């Protein structure tokens, strides 16, 4: 039995053991996904212009891509010394008995959920929701170093403390991290209480995280993610529908659905297989071709190879921009600019690579990402974003070592994940109606 097979067997065993701990009938629930720049967000800054918000989101994309590159073992050349906060959407839940409100960054690129806890030995200042106090909750249980939950931490596990409590460390890029006790608690998603959810009670959390958030809500594919821990309730299913770009007067939120409320049906639904790769956290799919007008480009990580690698792109809601390998990106933009015509210009902020003055979106040729079994036509309004008045830039950027389908290209698209059937579903949708 090879190493990957052993790891996958352990993954299944641990996931099943967690689901037995939560005694609930089959069902589902929904939670608001609040964009960090929405007026409803605890991170909202009314003094920032739309241009500033976009620039910061683009920089966070680069920082996040660097973190994922490091996790995957790439020697990334991306500049990561930018932002530590790893996502773009906020979820409001409650933890403990009695329940305490928590604002967490919803992250499909993380597994373990964690929040700041007292006593805080070295924590960032938190002025929004209160810091959790484990001693005040009747359902708080630390996990020993012999527990299955502790085993599931793998490389994120630290040596036991003097009382035999399992210790974790989650790192996000070069500077941001959370260290603390691994524990079980009751989580509340709206009125729905879910018992025995494993999470990190963070006692040391550095100050690159925003003072208005409590921590991270892990929605990845690993055994400690919310999705797999609640498998008996949600059956490995969740979906989200991201509304278009937030404006300062909008009070709308995107939605994330779990379990039986995930219902992606209809003639326009397409699906592509999830590819299981280590680390299990990320949602890998296979991009085979990109169609620009009538010009088909075979998607290969390197043009020295004649085959398309399986699981060659990650579907990620926490990255704003879409990243493609440099060689393919150059071919893609060459074909795209020929189809658009006119003169390109430099991004005034020097972040994005392909920009136009007064771009007519009706003149952008159709672009279709052809995944295994699923063709997705990209909306021009998501591909090109007006970063300044009269200046529109392509929201797809080059990368040296990985590919990510970012959230701008997923807007107004119902995106569903079924970790049992190992598929991702896509359906064009007016997300403002959901």
TrEMBL record:
Protein name as annotated: Peptidase A1 domain-containing protein
Family membership: Belongs to the peptidase A1 family.
Signal peptide extent: 1-21
GO molecular function, one term: aspartic-type endopeptidase activity
CDD domains in the record: pepsin_A_like_plant
Keyword Thylakoid among record annotations: no
Organism: Tagetes erecta
GO cellular component: extracellular region
GO process terms (BP): proteolysis
Alphabetical list of InterPro entries matching this protein: Aspartic_peptidase_A1, Aspartic_peptidase_AS, Pepsin-like_plant, PEPTIDASE_A1, Peptidase_aspartic_dom_sf, Plant_Aspart_Prot_A1, TAXi_C, TAXi_N
């Amino acid at each position: 039995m090879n190493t990957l097979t052993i790891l996958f067997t352990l993954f299944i065993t641990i996931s099943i053991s967690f689901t037995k701990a939560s005694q609930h009938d089959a069902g589902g629930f929904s939670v608001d996904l609040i964009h960090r720049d929405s007026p409803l967000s605890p991170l909202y800054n009314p003094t920032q212009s739309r241009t500033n918000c976009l620039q910061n989101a683009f920089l966070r994309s680069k920082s996040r891509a660097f973190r994922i590159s490091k996790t995957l073992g790439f020697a990334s050349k991306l500049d990561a010394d930018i932002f530590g906060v790893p996502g773009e959407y906020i979820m409001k839940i409650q933890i403990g008995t009695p329940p305490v409100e928590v604002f967490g960054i919803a992250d499909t690129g993380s597994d373990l959920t964690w929040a700041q806890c007292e006593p805080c030995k070295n924590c960032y200042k938190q002025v929004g929701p209160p810091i959790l106090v484990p001693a005040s909750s009747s359902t708080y249980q630390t996990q020993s170093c012999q527990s299955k939950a502790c085993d599931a931490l793998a490389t994120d596990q630290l040596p036991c403390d003097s009382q035999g409590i399992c210790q974790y460390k989650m790192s996000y890029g070069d500077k941001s991290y959370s260290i603390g006790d691994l524990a079980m608690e009751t989580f509340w998603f709206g009125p729905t209480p879910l018992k025995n959810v494993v999470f990190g009670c963070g006692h040391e959390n550095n100050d690159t995280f925003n003072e208005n958030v409590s921590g991270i809500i892990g929605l990845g594919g690993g055994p400690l993610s919310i999705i797999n821990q609640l498998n008996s309730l949600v059956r490995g299913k969740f979906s989200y529908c991201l509304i278009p770009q937030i404006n300062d007067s909008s009070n709308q939120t995107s939605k994330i659905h779990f379990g039986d409320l995930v219902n992606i049906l209809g003639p326009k639904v397409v699906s592509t297989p999830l590819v299981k790769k280590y680390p299990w956290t990320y949602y890998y799919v296979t991009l085979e071709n990109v169609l620009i007008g009538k010009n088909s480009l075979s998607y290969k990580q390197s043009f020295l190879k004649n085959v398309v690698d399986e699981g060659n792109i990650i579907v990620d809601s926490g990255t704003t921009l879409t990243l493609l390998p440099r060689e393919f990106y150059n071919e893609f933009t060459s074909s795209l600019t020929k189809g658009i015509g006119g003169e390109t210009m430099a991004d005034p902020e020097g972040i994005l690579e392909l920009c136009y003055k007064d771009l007519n979106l009706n003149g952008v040729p159709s672009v279709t990402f052809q995944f295994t079994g699923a063709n997705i036509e990209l909306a021009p309004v998501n591909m090109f974003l007006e970063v300044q008045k009269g200046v529109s830039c392509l929201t797809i950027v080059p990368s040296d070592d990985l590919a990510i389908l970012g959230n701008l290209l997923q807007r107004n698209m119902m995106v569903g994940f079924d970790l049992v059937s190992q598929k991702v579903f896509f359906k064009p949708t007016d997300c403002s109606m959901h």
